[in-house]
Write a structure and sequence with these properties.
10 helices, binds zinc ion
Length: 255
């Protein structure tokens, strides 16, 4: 992924390319299409009774995006191989993020978000064409928007508070989006908890109930597959060895 190892803030691979900008635009256009169709159907409905269900569906999309971000992150962190087709580069990217977490904050926006935006466009666009339910379209729009934003909230969680706009800091403090204090739990030695990266609201439920641990054991018993987190050494902590909210240099990330 990076042009040089260890990566630096000026690494050319952090810059957005035109194709990445187009892919991100496709993602936002898909979200806008779902929202527009939802509003159009609601406006054409005989009454406004559909509006509350659209709002609830929008909230459901926000919570669903956080949950799916955690499930996907858990799968990619623990299973498969960097040489695999399709998922291999993602597995490699997540492993690199554990080694050099600050590199995520150095990427330009389209460089950071284009992959998830393209995935959302690919899967949600056909659903939008088929769907004629205003509430369901509201759910699709919300889920798509927050799924794309999950990598942005993840990046903000690796920034110091002084680097962020006060509104972003207020949203982090309110627990609406992922905070540094919350996300640092994932960047412990084993990277085996706090997988959700939009708001992290599901992390407590999933971790306290040992949901991923139970799934890992079930997969091991049924298929004999061990998750990567079972064999991690306990000495890989990098960025978060510093003070909370303090951004360390690229050099300090290397151990
Ligand atoms: Zn991870
Ligand atoms: Zn992270």
């Amino acid at each position: 992924m990076f042009s040089s190892y260890p990566p630096t803030p000026n690494d050319p691979s952090m810059r957005s390319t035109w194709s990445q900008i187009v892919e991100l635009a496709c993602g936002w256009a898909t979200v806008a299409l779902a929202l527009g169709k939802s509003i159009r159907l609601a406006a054409a409905a005989p009454s406004y009774t559909v509006v509350p269900s659209m709002v609830v569906a929008g909230l459901a999309g926000y919570f669903l995006a956080d949950l799916i971000s955690g499930v996907y992150h858990w799968v990619i962190d623990n299973y498969g191989d960097p040489s695999m087709p399709v998922f291999g580069p993602q597995i490699s990217n997540f492993q690199e993020h554990h080694k050099w977490p600050l590199a995520l904050t150095w990427q330009q926006v389209a460089n950071r978000l284009h992959k998830i935006a393209l995935v959302m466009a690919f899967f949600l666009f056909p659903l939008i064409l088929l769907c004629r339910d205003a509430a369901l379209l509201s759910l699709i729009a919300s889920f798509g928007f927050f799924a794309i934003m999950s990598q942005q909230t993840h990046s903000w969680a690796h920034c110091s508070r002084s680097q962020l706009h006060p509104i972003i800091v207020a949203l982090q403090d309110a627990g609406v989006i992922l905070s540094h204090a919350h996300h640092r739990a994932h960047h412990g030695p084993r990277h085996d908890n706090s997988y959700c990266i939009l708001s992290g609201v599901w992390n407590r439920i999933l971790d306290e109930n040992r949901v991923f641990k139970a799934l890992e054991m079930a997969l091991y018993v049924l298929l004999g597959v061990r998750p990567r987190s079972w064999s991690k050494p306990g000495s890989e902590q990098t960025e978060d060895a510093g003070k909370e909210g303090e951004v360390t240099s690229a050099h300090a990330q290397i151990q």
